[in-house]
């Protein structure tokens, strides 16, 4: 779930037993100021770590990568682009959270930031799904003589995935707006027919961005595990195991980071459909637990590059090479400074000797 759920969660946990319209909602103080402050700080930390981590991924793949980019690395590059764009929105949400979800940036920025947030959520899960399918297909087919053709098709797949993410974001771009609720300006989605279509929107998002992709990913990895057990991976088996392990950890991190948020969102969908009643437990979860799950979901954007750098051998090697280059340059600078210092001292001694 994207961060616009914060504002929606704020409305949810302050509403009456049945959802009717925004005008019927009584907005009072919600949540803990300390919690909001901690979440804002966490957003800032995630933003900094995510920017640095994803820039490192760009550097490793595009600058120091061999001329030929593998299929998995091409998807990793696209995933890094989505995470990079996503973390750029976090400073806005940090301010919004610190101000008790009161949006200070205007209607245009509300549409832009919400759209970028949601689009990159979709793109991220789409590329994670594509990575798991590609991993299975690479091992199953073992086609090494069609790299040029496959590379071209991979690029077209990426174009299709970005297009699907853009189309899925259309409702957010159309219906996101700054709405006055009891004197507070909230950046949220406002559909013409109220809570019913908002519930439908969240339900389709849960299906498209979580349940369906996780089903595809699970099937792909089950097939991959069966394939690895059946076949004797004599050629480069260690390499394949390492790559499969790294991709699996990336997918699991996505699942564990986003699942709590989707679960609580689904609870909200049931409340909006009047399938379950609003009660005290719902209020407590949305006021105190839901913001933490959103924060956990956003942390996934800085976890991905860390996983790439720590779990994949080529990234670790390039990181060590980068550290080695920096260390070598530092030693050379120190050596040069020492020589200059000795030269200056020698000149001083000579001048003093001449003076005497």
TrEMBL record:
Keywords: Cell membrane, Disulfide bond, G-protein coupled receptor, Glycoprotein, Membrane, Receptor, Transducer, Transmembrane, Transmembrane helix. Pfam families: 7tm_1 (PF00001). Residues 53-308 form the G-protein coupled receptors family 1 profile domain. It is a multi-pass membrane protein. InterPro entries: ATII_rcpt (IPR000248), CCR1-9-like (IPR050119), GPCR_Rhodpsn (IPR000276), GPCR_Rhodpsn_7TM (IPR017452). It is found in: Cell membrane. The chain crosses the membrane at residues 41-61, 73-92, 112-133, 154-175, 206-225, 246-268, 288-310. The keyword Membrane applies. GO terms for molecular function: C-C chemokine binding; C-C chemokine receptor activity. It comes from the Eukaryota. GO terms for cellular component: external side of plasma membrane. One of its GO terms (biological process) is positive regulation of cytosolic calcium ion concentration. The keyword Glycosyltransferase does not apply. Receptor for RNL3/relaxin-3. Binding of the ligand inhibit cAMP accumulation. This is Relaxin-3 receptor 1. It comes from Cyprinus carpio (Common carp).
């Amino acid at each position: 779930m994207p961060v616009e759920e914060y504002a929606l969660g704020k409305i949810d946990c302050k509403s009456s037993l049945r959802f009717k319209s925004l005008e019927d909602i009584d907005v009072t103080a919600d949540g803990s100021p300390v919690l909001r402050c901690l979440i804002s700080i966490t957003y800032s930390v995630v933003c900094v770590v995510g920017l640095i981590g994803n820039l490192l991924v760009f550097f490793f793949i595009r600058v120091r990568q061999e001329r030929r980019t593998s299929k998995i690395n091409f998807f990793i590059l696209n995933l890094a682009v989505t995470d990079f764009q996503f973390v750029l929105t976090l400073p806005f949400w940090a301010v919004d959270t610190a101000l008790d979800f009161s949006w200070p940036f205007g209607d245009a920025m509300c549409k832009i930031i919400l759209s970028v947030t949601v689009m990159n959520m979709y793109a991220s899960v789409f590329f994670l799904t594509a990575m798991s399918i590609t991993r299975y297909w690479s091992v199953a087919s073992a086609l090494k003589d069609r790299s040029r053709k496959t590379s071209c098709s991979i690029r077209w797949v990426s174009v299709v995935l970005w297009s699907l993410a853009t189309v899925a974001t259309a409702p957010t771009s159309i219906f996101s707006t700054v709405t006055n609720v009891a004197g507070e300006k909230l950046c949220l989605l406002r559909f013409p027919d109220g809570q019913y279509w908002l519930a439908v929107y969240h339900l389709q998002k849960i299906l498209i961005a979580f349940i369906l992709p996780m089903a595809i990913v699970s099937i792909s990895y089950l097939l991959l595990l069966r394939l690895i057990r059946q076949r004797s991976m004599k050629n480069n088996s260690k390499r394949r195991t390492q790559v499969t392990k790294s991709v699996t950890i990336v997918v699991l991190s996505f699942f564990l980071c986003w699942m709590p948020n989707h679960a609580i969102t689904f609870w909200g969908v049931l409340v909006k459909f009047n399938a379950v009643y609003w009660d005290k437990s719902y209020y407590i979860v949305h006021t105190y637990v839901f913001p933490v799950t959103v924060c956990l979901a956003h942390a996934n954007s800085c976890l991905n590059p860390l996983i790439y750098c720590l779990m994949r051998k080529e990234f670790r090697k390039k990181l060590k090479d980068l550290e080695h280059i920096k260390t070598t340059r530092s030693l050379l600078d120190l050596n040069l400074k020492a020589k200059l210092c000795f030269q200056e001292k020698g000149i001083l001694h000579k001048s003093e000797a001449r003076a005497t």
